[in-house]
Each structure stands twice: as C-alpha cells, then as structure tokens.
C-alpha cells in the first residue's frame, strides 16, 4: 500500500464490528501495511457458476487454483462479476469483501492451513484497515464451512528469472504440453508469430543508422497513414502542451517530440499493433495500451532523474515501457483456449503477481515469451533484457537499468492502483542501483497521474471503441 493509500485508511465499518460483537468474536483494528505476513492475511473470493455462489477463503501466501477447485467440488467456478459484487457490498456500505461467512448467504470453503495461525487478519470492508482475530475465534466463524487443501503455496512457484538460455526450450515444452493435453491438434514445427511489420523493419534500420535525419523518419512514418495520424495526435496531446497547432509529422518531430522519442514511439506502436488485443481480459484489469503508455511515461520521468553520466538511452527506456507487456498479447495469440484460464485465475488471485499465475498454469511467463519475441524480431539487446528481467528487482546483469526501470515504474504505478498484482514496497536497493532518490521517483509518478486524462485519451487512440 502506498503512503497515499495509508493516509486514506478508514475505520472499520460499524456493520462489521456489530456483526462480530453479536457473534461474540473479539477483534482489533490494524492499519494495513506491506510488512504484515501474507500467511496470516485471509483472502476472500466470491465465486459463482450456474449452481450459485461460493465464498472461498485462503491465505495470501497461496494461489487459488481453479482447476483444483473444480476437482474438489465438481463445479467450474469463476469470480463473481465486479458490478454484482459491488452491489452486494454496497448494501452494507462496504468497498472490500471481508472473510466473514455469516456476512453472505453463500456456502463457504476454506483452506484448512488458515487454522495453523494463532492470529488472522481479515479485510474490515474499508480500505487501509484490517481486523485481527484469534485463530480459535476464526474457527468458530467456520463452523458451517467446509475445509480442504486447494491453495498452492507461492514459494513453490518459481518463475525462471535467471536462466534466459532455457526460454526457447521452456516455451516449446509449454506449447507441446498444452497442445497434447487440451487442444488435440498437430503442433506446427514453429510457433506462428506474425512477421515483423515492414514499417518496423524500416524504423529499426533508421535506429542504427548514425546518419539518419528527421526527413528519413518523417518519410517512413508518412508511408503508414495510421501511424502518421497517431504521431501527430501524440504531439498535439495536452500531455506535451505544444504551442500552436501541429500540422505534420515533421512538425511533430521538430517542435514537440524529438527524433529519438518519435523513432521509438513509432516502433512501439508498429510492433504493438502486430498482435491484436485479446477479447477476454481479467476483471478490473488496466487496459493494455493504458498500462503501456502510463509505464512508458513514468519511465520517461525516471530516466531524467538518473544522473546524466549514468543515464541509459532515453528512447530505448521509453520503448521498453511501451512494449513491456507484449508477452501478454503473445500468450493470448499462442494459447487462445488457455488465456481465459489465466484471466480467471488473475481475477481470484488479486494478491498474486501475474508471472506466478502464468508459471503455475503454463510453466512459462509473459516476460519469457515477450523477450523471446524480441529476439525473434532482432530487436536491440537492451529491449530483450528490459522485458526478460522486468520482474526481478535484484537483476544487476548487462543492461540492468532497462529492466530495473520497468520494475520500478510498474511497482510505483501499482502503489497508485494502476496495473494488476499486489502493492509492494519498492526496494531501496532498486532505487540505489538506478541512483534515483525515492522522492524523485514519486515525483515522476505524480506527474503522470496529474496528466491521467491526457494519457488515457492517447491510450484510447491505440484501441478506439468499435
């Protein structure tokens, strides 16, 4: 939880305190913070199918495996739709779901390992405040509930963070396993990935040409009308506050955006458009292009905060931000029947990083597959590294700053409610490695959040509503 979020903590709702008092359950209000042990924090998920709803309780140190739940119950359960859950909570004036079976009329299933803890922490119903309840008292709340073991300890899920040479074999193995087990069709000799677009090929050539001029990049961008329109609208956005009207691509480059930003922006847009957005996505997910643009914008500010002598190439750090989640699109492209399974697991595990969910279900992560695609497309090594190691805050290998910047940007955005996964404290070691003071990092995020409306407008241009 960010400091801002902690400042907005509300006391526990009276309806919850009265319910516990009526049941004779003692509780203590605790301010939510990131140091509280996950094994003591109870995650409550309200699931449903055609039979009805089921309240599922498990510790935040575990991942809820919907496949195991199906084996246990014989039911194919998914998260209750967000608007329905909001209406249900709204009746009690709550914004979060407390792990209290008496509050709902739903049957309850809990992971029996919860009761190994002497004290448990549950959501109070208001953000920022938890309720601490003795394990013996919590057991009384579960008298009518059923016990089982269905959670997967997060410590057992180990994404490949340090063996990039194994990526190709692991991706092939995952495709073979899923094809043989579920799709029942012949596996092609190669994974079908769209070829690098012609526009992107031309831009890459310009990127490595030390003699390339504004006229060169203008010529390439103008051959792609959709790309040209986006570059012009980017420059005209309130985010850049350009004086006067932007009349052409060249005008956008010379007066507002600059050569490096346009060349990397154009490349990011061309590559991102190669893979279509999946129709399915997790509830509450930040839209793909919104996440990409916010991340790139934060990285732009973070890069400027790095001392000039240590600063990585600004255009490439921005491009890394734009493309950081392209592996998400590739997963949807390669595993279409199973991508929805990933989405459903992300919905019921909001406390878990997406790379752990993907590792558990597929044996690979979007980071591995996105980095593999960058290699396939002969993208710069800095971009490969940025995508491959973006979830490792301790990565200190070659081109580390590119990966570290994505890790930092996404961590800061999550603390402000943008992006999926748990809110975690940004490690001081990560800031130290980049030589960015914490207050400068928070300033970079604040600038992006202040310009949220302008950036959201840019994101809509990437994926206009039909």
TrEMBL record:
InterPro entries: HDOD, RNase_Y/CdgJ, UCP036888_HDGYP-like, YbaK/aa-tRNA-synt-asso_dom_sf, YbaK/aa-tRNA-synth-assoc-dom. Residues 193-393 form the HDOD domain. One of its GO terms (molecular function) is aminoacyl-tRNA deacylase activity. It holds the Pfam family HDOD. This is HD-like signal output (HDOD) domain, no enzymatic activity. The lineage of its organism: Bacteria, Pseudomonadati, Pseudomonadota, Gammaproteobacteria, Pseudomonadales.
